[in-house]
Amino acid sequence: MSEIISKAITCPKCNQKSTVDLMCSMNTESDPGVREKIFNGSLFRWKCKKCGFSTRLQFPVLYSDLKRQFMVYYIPNVERSCIVDEKLEKEFAELSDIRKRVVPTINALKEKIFLLEGGHSDLAVELSKLAVAEVVSKSTGQNVYEGYCTEINKEENSISFQFFLGGDHRSYLQTTRYDVYKRSLGIVRQYFNETDKKKGFLNINRSWAREALKRYKTTE
Ligand SMILES: [Zn+2]
Fold first, then answer.
1. Could you give the CA distance from residue 147 to residue 31 in angstroms, rounded to a whole number?
2. N or C terminus: which one in the chain shows less Cβ crowding within 10 Å?
3. Which of 102, 117, 132 is the last residue of a domain?
4. What residues does the ion ligand 1 have nearby, CB within 5 Å?
5. DSSP 8-state assignment for residue 6
6. At which of 117, 152, 170 does a domain end?
7. How far is the CA of 49 from the centre of ligand 1 (A)?
8. Which residues form the domain of 210?
9. Residues 6 or more apart from 218 whose CB is under 8 A from it?
10. Ligand 1 centre and the CA of 7: distance in Å?
């Protein structure tokens, strides 16, 4: 099922023309090494054969892990809250229970893969992240630019987030109790159970969490 597209590319440094093979669609069963390539960044790296100039390419990637029943669609800078791809919906009609997400950045792609393959609820993680980000913002006096969950450890009662703060996006690690996630999970199960099964690829991010929390507070 992996799909490779050849594209013409001109080196921005030496103007050498060449073609590059972009892996736009992949699944973990037929492309077992692809997960590592995403996490070490090599999937997106391009190097000019003539002058050695290296850069990161931006192109959409559809990552499927059908064994663990999820798909993550990376569309650079996507802002829409939901993407419905009729062709894919048809192709995977028998897999209606599959969780489908769309993400705007490579960091978010990695976070979703990490969460969904671990069987965690990314909805509950987003709700937790929003709450923890508010605490971090108050204690540091800086805006939280973005944040990613890096570890969930039930046994040690911890959940960790890497935040990026202020205008210079300074990295800031915050660990809190797993109970925060557990509480969010309770809210998700009670109020947002249907969200997981929705048609299309959902953009479960900070905006979703803000909106969800607003709805939760008005129903409480
Ligand atoms: Zn070059």
1. 29
2. C
3. 117
4. 11, 13-14, 16, 48, 50-51, 53
5. E
6. 117
7. 7
8. 122-219
9. none
10. 16
* 165 in the same domain as 87: no
Give residue 10 CA to ligand 1 midpoint distance, Å: 8
Q: What is the pLDDT along the chain (220 residues), one digit of tens a residue?
A: 689 999 999 999 999 999 999 999 999 999 989 999 999 999 999 999 999 999 999 999 999 999 999 999 999 999 988 888 887 777 777 666 789 999 999 999 999 999 999 999 999 999 999 999 999 999 999 999 999 999 999 999 999 999 999 999 999 999 999 999 999 999 999 999 888 767 889 999 999 999 999 988 887 6
Are 111 and 149 spatial neighbours (Cβ–Cβ below 8 Å)?
A: yes
Q: How far does residue 44's CA lie from ligand 1's centre (Å)? A: 17
Structural domain total, the chain: 2
